[in-house]
């Protein structure tokens, strides 16, 4: 990960430690940041799928830039067959079909709004829909 800045490397390590049972894939973005994909994240109700992958980019501006948006499996669907709802949209992430989750941090605090905390908040929000 030598092409990735030390602060982004630290953020990736925090994610790795926080999700030890989920395979983590990292790809340098060519600007000091990284594309991150976590696999096999448990979902459960209200989702029809038992798990998902989640992908996002941590840019070289981190921690002064929000880690946003996040992307999950393209076939995400609800058990009750209702639409996904607000905050979701069909998209692509790195040429892969995906559902985009829009959960922007309105008052970013670089000291406390870490990539792993944002990921945990996004997953909590996803599971609460």
Can you walk me through this structure?
It is a single chain. The chain has 2 helices and 6 strands, in the order αββββββα. The protein is globular and about 45 Å long. A hairpin with an 8-residue loop joins strand 2 and strand 3 (51-58). The protein has a 6-stranded antiparallel β-sheet with strand order 1-2-3-4-6-5. The N and C termini lie far apart (35 Å). With 129 residues, it is α+β, with helices and mostly antiparallel strands. The mean pLDDT is 93. It has helices spanning 6-18, 115-127, and strands at residues 24-28, 34-42, 51-58, 70-73, 88-93, 96-101.
Protein traits:
single chain, 129 residues, alpha+beta, 6-stranded antiparallel β-sheet, 6 strands, 20% helix
Question: How are the strands ordered across the major sheet?
Answer: 1-2-3-4-6-5
Order of helices and strands: HEEEEEEH
Strand residue percentage: 25-35%
Could you name the ranges where pLDDT drops below 50 across 5 or more consecutive residues? none
Structural class: alpha+beta
In a few lines, what is going on in this structure?
With 129 residues, the chain is α+β, with helices and mostly antiparallel strands. It is 20% helix and 29% strand.
Architecture blueprint of SSEs:
Layout: H1 6-18, E1 24-28, E2 34-42, E3 51-58, E4 70-73, E5 88-93, E6 96-101, H2 115-127
Antiparallel strand pairs: 1-2, 2-3, 3-4, 4-6, 5-6
């Amino acid at each position: 990960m030598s092409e990735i800045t030390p602060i982004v490397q630290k953020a990736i390590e925090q994610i790795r430690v926080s999700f030890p049972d989920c395979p983590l894939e990292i790809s340098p973005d060519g600007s000091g940041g990284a594309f991150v994909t976590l696999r096999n994240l448990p979902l459960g109700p209200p989702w029809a799928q038992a798990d998902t992958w989640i992908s996002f980019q941590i840019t070289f501006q981190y921690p002064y830039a929000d880690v946003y948006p996040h992307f999950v499996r393209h076939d995400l669907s609800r058990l009750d067959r209702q639409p996904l709802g607000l905050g979701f949209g069909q998209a692509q992430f790195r040429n892969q079909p995906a559902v985009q989750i829009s959960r922007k941090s309105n008052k970013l605090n670089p000291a406390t709004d870490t990539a792993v905390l944002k990921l945990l908040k996004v997953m909590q929000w996803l599971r609460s829909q």
